[in-house]
Amino acid sequence: MSAPELYLLERAGREGSETLSVYHGSGGYKALEKVLKTPLTQAEVISEVREAGLRGRGGAGFPTGLKWSFMPDHEKDSRKRYMVVNADESEPGTCKDRVLMREDPHGLIEGCLIAAFAMRIDAVYIYVRGEYRKPYNRLQAAIDEARAAGLVGDAIMGSEFSCEIHMHKGAGAYICGEETGLMESLEGKRGHPRPKPPFPAGVGLWGQPTTVNNVESIFNVPFIIDRGATWFARLGSEESRGNFLCGISGHVERPGVYEVPLGTPAREILEDYAGGIWKGRSLKAWFPGGSSTGLLPPDLIDTPMEHDSIKAIGSMFGTGAMIILDETACTVRASEVLARFYDHESCGQCSQCREGTEWLHQIFRRIEEGGGSMEDIANLERLAMGMAPGKTICALADAAAIPTLAVIKHFKNELVAHVEQGCCPLKANTARAQEVRV
Ligand SMILES: Cc1cc2nc3c(=O)[nH]c(=O)nc-3n(C[C@H](O)[C@H](O)[C@H](O)COP(=O)(O)O)c2cc1C
Ligand code: SF4
Asked: Which of 1, 41, 68, 181 is 20 to 30 A from 172, alpha carbon to alpha carbon?
């Protein structure tokens, strides 16, 4: 098999990769120049991104160009409009956007400017996870550098296009990664998601038309404009094009963030990129795309990592962040830890989510600690069915319910073993599974 064509991490790790000179030296801002000097029309830019088939990398896999086209026609709607870049990156297991912001911040800035041009936006907000101090500082320094070079602010590259980029730090709430919770937070309020409709393209930030995109989605844009939709469409699979950043973590030899063509079998990522299961152990369970996508059994590990194939096995591609559990791990303990996370992060607006996440947590804990019953297992399923899909204001309830249903579907025998034995049958193993990597 020939080596895949890589582009997302082309500059990452190079000396000075975060600087304008290195970015310029490797063809940076060429795509923006093409847009502004050719010049391309707004419609042409959107059409190129649509034709490329880029799907959002923030979790839902929604087509990026199509989302941009939902912004109202500027001739009929002259309201101020905004773009928000979602750099909150709080889905457990996900750690890809920070690599892009830290290693190649100008790539994100160029993507923002092209997207803003396409949607006639002159103000972009980048909402960065608060703990990401280095990526934040590098991105801020890069914006300052770009502004000094006439690439951000008024009359960019001497054209009629002006655009300001503002940075904002999150304060450690998972729910502020949900796009409407994020906008509330940006407005200085609690990060409580808004009921939809109206959707952000109609009523978004400060009530104005807004588009929210993930960092990696926007990072792909300059490559599409520079190299063309046809080039992009050749990469990845038919329905999920391009490469993606796979952050693989857990019980693997080489955890990390790897650039992988969409459609690569999960086994290949596990074995060839991440060096296989650590300590020569075997695979027990895996999450395909962050904790919300639920645990899958080992016999599904040959599934191609792309949206439709993962959906066909009853899960979701999500953020493409694989989490691997080896034979020593306890899936009930893993579920308890996750349920505690969702319980803690629920904003409390919807009763199914507020109460449901707490009950899921309590029941998983009771089963893990040996005090569970068969009725508890039935209640887990009943509760999760009442929480999802689409029954609440936002998808956090789904994110808690889906992993619950997945563990019942694929690992029910382990739940039953806990109940029957009145303890965690893997307790000794759990300590081994939690060995600290040195
Ligand atoms: C609870 C919750 C948390 C989310 N967290 C993130 C996040 O940290 N980063 C992100 O890009 N999208 C996150 N999303 C998805 C966003 O709401 C939104 O769909 C995404 O930013 C759109 O970008 P894309 O179309 O480029 O994928 C989250 C969604 C939910 C329901
Ligand atoms: S589903 Fe949960 S997190 Fe989302 S709005 Fe409702 S209570 Fe809040």
From this structure: 68
